[in-house]
Amino acid sequence: DDDTFISLPQRVAIANAHPGALFVSIHFNSALRRGADGTETFYYNRKAAPVAVRIQKQLARVNGNENRGVKRRGYYVLRKTRIPAVLAECAFLTNPQEAVRCQAAAHRQALASAIYRGIKPSLPAKVEPQKDAKDTKSTKGVSDVDFDRLDISII
How high is the pLDDT of residue 47? Predict the structure, then answer.
């Protein structure tokens, strides 16, 4: 619940401590040119390519901006993880229109849901809705995944 910086080597170590998991790094891009826009998704290990393609497809649907595509790059967190890893650039915060859109909680939730839809085919076939530990309401609607039964870490 804080904003502690996790170094790239630490992120890789956390990811590599979870064999069988999927590493998804979510970012917002920047550029010198204010008009730069769009969504792009990166991968390094070819096993991650199908997930990257699905995430990119879903993000492009939500954003309606330039689809910059899926690219293979050797970014540290993609290259050093031993599990499939993708890096999603959701929008350019240096683009005034995209920055305004990304300030809206509803748009950020739509981006998160798009990423989930891209990941979902990689999840186990049957999972139960998670119950919030603080109350008995189901978190169904956020996602239909029991995160306690999956190897998912948010770093």
Answer: 94
Phi/psi for 79 (5° steps) reads: -75, -35
Q: Which strands form 67-72's sheet, in the order they lie side by side?
A: 23-29, 85-92, 39-43, 67-72
Q: How many CB atoms lie within 10 A of CB 65?
A: 18
Tens digits of residue pLDDT in 100-135: 999 999 999 999 999 999 999 988 765 444 454 444
Q: In Å, what is the CA distance from 70 to each residue of 38, 57, 88?
A: 12, 9, 9
- Hey, how many other C-beta atoms are within 10 angstroms of the C-beta on 14? 16
Token digits of residue 79: 């290259």
Amino acid code (one letter) for 114? A
Overall pTM surpassing 0.85 (yes/no): no
Nearest one of 12, 145, 147 to 76, comparing CA atoms:
12
